[in-house]
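Input record (one chain):
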Amino acid sequence: MIRQSKKDAILELKNTGMSLRKIARTLKVSRNTITKILKDPDEAAPHRESRHEEHVPLIRDLFKECKGNAVRVAEELESRHQITIPYQSLTWIMRKHEIRKRKKRRAGQYHFKPGQEMQHDTSPHQVTIDGKKVSAQCASLTLAFSRKLFIQYYPRFTRFECKVFLSKAFDFMDGVCSRCIVDNTSVIVAGGCCRSHYPTGYCPQ
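The corresponding structure, as predicted from the sequence alone:
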């Protein structure tokens, strides 16, 4: 069974963008094993204490100094302190002592059918036009099922721009979904409050 330290090294190298072939060559592990680990990184594996754990305080300080780059930590340990720690052992020590915390996984997933839901959002951006940075509002519409996206930039975003944007977005999407989630776009509300909200362009009876 492969050690946890080597698993950690595989995950770390993969996060840097290294190919499976290069990881296999670097750590002397088969690509099939690497693929299995990437599919199930949390599978437990027994491991023994490392003889390098006495250097944990130094590793912790270097980790902060190197801004979370484990490769740089290994280089600094060797060049400045004459301490050589195998990379897989170093990443295991970091994980064990929570120097580097494991990224949280998403708690769940949402599943949508075609045409079920879309989301409209706006957010302020800084864009460069003719060499000058200006503020602009980015309006977007995303289909939940296919993730198809339509965006446009506006110097401001009022009810008028909202109507223009949604009209163009619906034309681009060749239709609308049965439900639209509006995020951070108060201008789409023409009046009312809470459950009595009604959208721009809609007149309640």
